[in-house]
Design a protein that fits this description.
The protein has 254 residues and is of the alpha+beta class. It folds into two domains: 23-35 and 109-122 and 130-252, no CATH class; 38-98, no CATH class. It is 21% helix and 39% strand. It contains four helices and nine strands. The protein has a nine-stranded antiparallel sheet with strand order 2-3-4-5-1-6-9-8-7. The longest helix is centred in the middle third of the chain and has 19 residues, at 113-131.
Amino acid sequence: MSRPTPFEINVEEVFPRLEHAPIVEAVIQFNAPPTVSFEPAELKVKLQSRFGSDKITDQMQLETGFAGSPAGTEFRHKSQWDGLRIMSENGKHICQWKSKSLIFSRLAPYQTWESFLESALPYWHAYQTVHVPEVIESIGVRFISQIELQANQKVSDFVAKAPPPLKGLGLRSDSFFHQDTIPVPGQQYEIRLIRTMQRIADQAGKKSILVVDIDVSTTAATMSAELERVLQEIRFLKNKVFFAYMKDAENKFK
């Protein structure tokens, strides 16, 4: 029996451009501990001078729980600063500037990988300038697609659905959640593929929503000089998974 062909990354491979891609959110995350830190107020001033047209607000993390005291058990909560939220004027770009990471999101409509990076990288370059990280511990890119199924459509029209769990009993599920974590052999990447279908009620009744979540992340540190190569390889992997898993995407979303 012949051995399977080793998986190769080919950043020169051309993928179809989808005019109506079902992507509702594209996210890129840089985990990079700073070597230079600033107090929240000082950091906010620095970013307002750089991103003057964006809305910059504080993000707070709320912790709650029960704790014992002389008077008995008490419910306590505390909040702590959890970074800054930077939103573009049109609300389509959202950047979370945290103490050890930067997370950029592009909301629908998604256009192209090039425009996505063109919007995200100025925030990353600002993070580099302000915090001077020595290394990027990990990079993650996540693309979330959402498809509303019409009355005459099935999940299998769009993707290869996981086997029904109770098929032998004659029962069928109207929702599912399936996740795979896939290491890329010989490479510094890991792919997480999540497929879920949910039944959501609205004014018109119930509708079925299929969500396909593709998350590609590095498993080793990246130096700044390697960033362009790594991002191109991540782009290849997320496209390869999308077009391999989605059925006839080029025609369905043209």
